[in-house]
Specification:
2 domains; alpha/beta; Rossmann fold; Dihydrodipicolinate Reductase, domain 2; six-stranded parallel sheet; seven-stranded mixed sheet; 13 strands
């Protein structure tokens, strides 16, 4: 049985979704819709999609799966309409902009017995999958610390530039757009840690897209602490995830999609050589084969985490695999993300209406 997919919203991210569905067996891209009809026609022509719907209800009537790629402020209304029509949902993150909207949507999904999948795509990076295998195999012992760096700058981050990007009007501003990544990775590696503190600073350099340009978030559990560092002032443009265990450490370069593990213990000889130098040598030995495989997969078009998560969803809908984003994970991300964003706004002030 072939299932029909409809794309709602034809902006930048829609291209990744369309390409992924077109490579997923058992699914057909039936059509697209957008409030900007010209943009919808452009996307349809680009990817050879046969139907451009004038209205959302037309797409819902003809599609089994509604894939929502619009800005998050519009998600709740679109999702409710799709669920009311008995359709399965795929949604970009953030899913919604308030817990109240989520409570209503979650109840509707459960009442209608439909599927909801959220694009928690960095779970499907090669490097993150490798790190999870290492953790599950006990390579670094028990996880006791997670640290995520999201260090960026207006010169490299389109969401920080100008006055018009939709992320600027979210609770917590630009950071609310990325917070789901930090939260679902923490949940995946360490479970549902509780929010401990949020520190938000607005410096004189703060761009319009980040009312708080320096933010630190701390989560805590019985045996693990997780921290997120956000900066809008770092020209290095660094995205890393460090997972410290009782017997080792994993560092993931998320932009380069490369994971490295160190399990060396201290000794006088290693101090004399330099532990960092020893680790660097081991990393270099791993890098050659890893980069070769990475490059090959890119050439084959198999490198996209959007492709991997949508294909995992496809298998789940066909009864052949687990949910790529379990309900408990989605619920945790939304509820804790809402608390963090509103605390950022409390400390530096919410966005002012135009």
């Amino acid at each position: 049985m072939v299932l029909n997919v409809g794309i709602v919203g034809c902006g930048l991210i829609a291209g990744a979704h369309i390409q992924a569905w077109q490579k997923t067996p058992g699914f057909t891209l039936r059509g697209v819709t957008d409030t900007n009809a010209e943009q919808a026609r452009k996307r349809a022509a680009e990817f050879k999609i046969g139907t451009v719907y004038d209205r959302l209800d037309q797409l819902i009537a003809e599609c089994d799966i509604v894939d929502v790629c619009t800005p998050p402020q519009s998600h709740a209304a679109i999702a409710q309409q799709a669920v009311a029509g008995g359709r399965h949902l795929v949604m970009e993150k953030p899913v919604v902009t308030s817990v109240a909207d989520w409570d209503r949507l979650a109840k509707s999904v459960q009442d209608k017995n439909t599927k909801l999948a959220v694009i928690h795509n960095t779970k499907f990076l090669r490097s993150i999958q490798t790190a999870k295998r290492w953790v599950d195999a006990g390579r670094i012992g028990e996880v006791i610390r997670i640290h995520r760096e999201f260090l960026t700058h207006a010169s490299v981050d389109r969401m920080l530039v100008g006055e018009g990007h939709w992320s600027h009007k979210l609770p917590g501003g630009r950071w609310f757009e990325t917070l789901p990544h930090e939260l679902y990775l923490t949940h995946w590696f360490a479970g549902p840690l509780e929010l401990s503190s949020v520190t938000a600073v607005r410096t004189p350099n703060a761009p319009s897209g980040a009312r708080a340009d320096e933010v630190m978030v701390v989560l805590r559990g019985e045996r693990c602490i997780s921290t997120f560092q956000f900066s809008a002032n770092c020209r290095q443009n660094r995205r890393t995830l460090t997972i410290q265990g009782t017997t080792g450490r994993i560092v993931v370069d998320m932009l380069g999609d490369f994971a490295d593990v160190s399990t060396q213990t201290d000794s006088k000889l290693k101090r004399a050589v330099g532990s960092a130098i020893i680790d660097a040598g081991r990393t270099l030995l791993r890098a050659g084969p890893d980069r070769g495989q990475y490059g090959l997969q890119r050439l084959q078009g198999l490198q996209s985490p959007h492709l991997r998560i949508i294909q995992a969803l496809g298998r789940n809908l066909q009864g052949k695999g687990e949910e790529p984003t379990p309900f408990a994970e989605v619920d945790y991300v939304i509820r804790v993300g809402d608390k963090i964003a509103r605390e950022i706004d409390r400390q530096v002030g919410p966005v002012q209406p135009a």
